[in-house]
Amino acid sequence: MTDRAHRPEDHGDPHPDPDAAAAPPPEAALPDTEPDARFTFANERTFLAWSRTALALVVGGLAIVQLLPPFPAVPWGRQVLGVPLIVLGAVIAAAGYADWTRNQQALRRGAPLPRSLLPQILAGTITGVAVIAAVVLLVSGLR
Known about the structure:
By secondary structure, the protein is mainly α. The chain has helices at about 10, 35-65, 75-110, 120-140. The protein is built from four helices and no strands.
């Protein structure tokens, strides 16, 4: 015989989630409100930091392609190192603006801030460029 007093389907969850009752309504139902200026300024500073990063990547890529001496026996070495940095700079600039917009909208709704993929994109691309740089240097030194 089963003890019916301990069956959750009869009496609900014996350990209810205290946050479940306080869960906010869906995003579409949340009204827009003016967020605290400190959060708006912090969001803007983050956007400006991503913009500086993007600009530095573009300038660094241009410098590699235009100013770095050619690698011996690797005529494409400068382009293979510089062009991805320029493209990454463009991606970071556009994605930084998109993140700023999404964050500002979340702040206005009082919703959680969305996750950003920018750190993963930046880390992955820079890691890839570093590996390519090592290969170009090794191939250049072998010839």
